[in-house]
C-alpha cells in the first residue's frame, strides 16, 4: 500500500501558476538533513520533490515532519542506506504506481519509486554507484541500468508523459566533471556506464540540464573530502530525463547550487525542471 501522510496546508485552487516545477534532491539522510530539506522546500516550492538516499526504513521515515508544509510524502525506505521518496505539493497528492524496479526478484535495494501527479508520471531513481571497478557492484550497476532501460522503453511505448529524475551516478561526458583525469577510474564515467546512459538518450529521452546548459560545467555533486566544494571540484550525476511528451513542455532547468554551501548540507545540490502546465 502507498505510504503517505496527508498535507495539512494544501495549495490554493486559485493559484495562478501556469508551470509545473519538478525537482530532485539526493538528501544524504533525510533525518540528518531535515532542516536543510525543509528550508529548501520553503524557499523553492517545487510541485514535486524527489528524494534519494533517505537512509531511513519505512517505519522510521519522518512523515510527521511534513505536516503543515503543504507536501504529502510517498516513500520506499531501507534501513541505513538507499531509499527514495516523492513529495507532492497541494491538495491533489501523487498516487503511487510502482515501487521497486522490475526485472530482478532478488534485488532488495530501495532505489525506485514511480507515481502519477497531475497527468505526469514521475519516476524517482537512485542508480547504483558501481564502485569498485571491476567487480560485482559494477556488474549490478550495469544490470540495473539495463532493467531501467526496459522500464523506460515501456513508458515510451505507452506514450505516458514521463520524467525519470534522480541520482543516476553517471557522468555523461567529460564536460560534466571538473577533471576527467581525476575521475577516469571511477564507475561513474566508465565507458560501459556512459554507453548505457546514451542508450537511454538514443531511445528518445531528453536530458533537460544538458539541453539548457550544453557547454557543461554545471555540477550537482561535490565530495566532502579534499575541499571539493571550496575548490568547485564537482561533477554532474543528478539528471532529469524527459519523454517526448514532456520535452515539448520544457521551459527551464537548473541546479540550486547555493544549497550545497549551507551548514550541514548534503553533498548534492538539488536539480529541477519547469514544464508548461
How is this structure best described in words?
Mg(2+) binds at residues 26, 53, 167, 169, 267-268. A 6-stranded mixed sheet has the order 3-4-2-1-14-13. Helix 2 packs parallel to helix 3 (191-202). It is of the alpha+beta class. The longest helix is centred in the middle third of the chain and has 22 residues, at 136-157. The protein has one domain (19-276): Deoxyribonuclease I, Chain A. Strand 7 (120-126), helix 2 (136-157) and strand 8 form a beta-alpha-beta unit. The chain has helices spanning 34-44, 136-157, 191-202, 208-212, 244-247, and strands spanning 19-26, 48-52, 71-76, 84-89, 95-99, 112-117, 120-126, 162-167, 206-207, 221-222, 234-235, 238-242, 250-255, 271-276. It is globular, with a radius of gyration of 17 Å. The chain is built from 5 helices and 14 strands.
Helix coverage percent of residues?
Answer: 10-25%
The CATH topology comes to: Deoxyribonuclease I, Chain A
Estimate the mean pLDDT confidence: 94
| Shape annotation | globular
From the helix content, strand content and strand pairing, which structural class follows? alpha+beta
Descriptive tags:
single chain; 277 residues; six-stranded mixed sheet; globular; metal ion binding; Deoxyribonuclease I, Chain A; alpha+beta; AP_endonuc_1; hydrolase; disordered N terminus
Give me the secondary-structure topology.
Elements: E1 19-26, H1 34-44, E2 48-52, E3 71-76, E4 84-89, E5 95-99, E6 112-117, E7 120-126, H2 136-157, E8 162-167, H3 191-202, E9 206-207, H4 208-212, E10 221-222, E11 234-235, E12 238-242, H5 244-247, E13 250-255, E14 271-276
Parallel strand pairs: 1-2, 7-8
Antiparallel strand pairs: 1-14, 2-4, 3-4, 5-6, 6-7, 8-12, 9-12, 10-11, 13-14
Helix pairs in contact: 2-3
Amino acid at each position: 500500500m502507498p505510504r503517505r501522510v496527508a498535507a495539512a496546508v494544501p495549495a490554493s485552487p486559485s493559484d495562478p501558476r501556469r508551470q509545473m516545477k519538478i525537482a530532485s534532491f539526493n538528501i544524504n539522510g533525510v533525518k540528518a538533513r531535515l532542516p536543510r530539506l525543509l528550508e529548501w522546500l520553503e524557499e523553492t516550492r517545487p510541485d514535486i520533490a524527489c528524494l534519494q538516499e533517505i537512509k531511513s526504513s519505512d517505519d522510521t521515515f519522518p512523515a510527521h515532519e511534513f505536516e503543515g508544509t503543504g507536501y504529502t510524502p510517498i516513500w520506499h525506505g531501507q534501513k541505513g542506506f538507499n531509499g527514495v521518496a516523492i513529495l507532492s505539493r497541494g491538495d491533489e497528492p501523487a498516487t503511487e504506481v510502482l515501487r521497486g524496479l522490475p526485472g530482478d526478484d532478488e534485488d532488495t535495494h530501495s532505489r525506485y519509486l514511480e507515481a502519477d501527479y497531475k497527468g505526469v508520471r514521475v519516476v524517482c531513481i537512485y542508480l547504483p554507484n558501481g564502485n569498485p571497478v571491476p567487480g560485482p557492484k559494477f556488474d549490478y550497476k550495469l544490470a540495473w541500468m539495463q532493467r531501467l532501460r526496459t522500464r523506460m522503453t515501456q513508458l515510451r511505448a505507452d506514450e505516458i508523459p514521463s520524467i525519470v529524475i534522480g541520482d543516476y551516478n553517471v557522468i555523461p561526458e567529460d564536460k560534466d566533471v571538473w577533471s576527467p583525469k581525476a575521475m577516469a577510474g571511477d564507475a561513474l564515467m566508465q565507458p560501459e556506464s556512459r554507453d548505457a546512459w546514451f542508450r537511454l538518450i538514443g531511445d528518445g529521452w531528453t536530458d533537460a540540464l544538458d539541453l539548457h546548459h550544453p557547454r557543461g560545467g554545471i555540477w550537482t555533486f561535490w565530495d566532502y573530502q579534499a575541499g571539493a566544494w571550496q575548490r568547485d571540484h564537482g561533477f554532474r550525476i543528478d539528471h532529469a530525463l524527459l519523454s517526448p511528451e514532456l520535452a515539448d513542455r520544457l521551459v527551464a532547468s537548473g541546479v540550486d547550487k547555493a544549497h550545497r554551501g549551507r551548514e550541514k548540507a548534503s553533498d548534492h545540490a538539488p536539480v529541477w525542471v519547469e514544464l508548461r502546465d
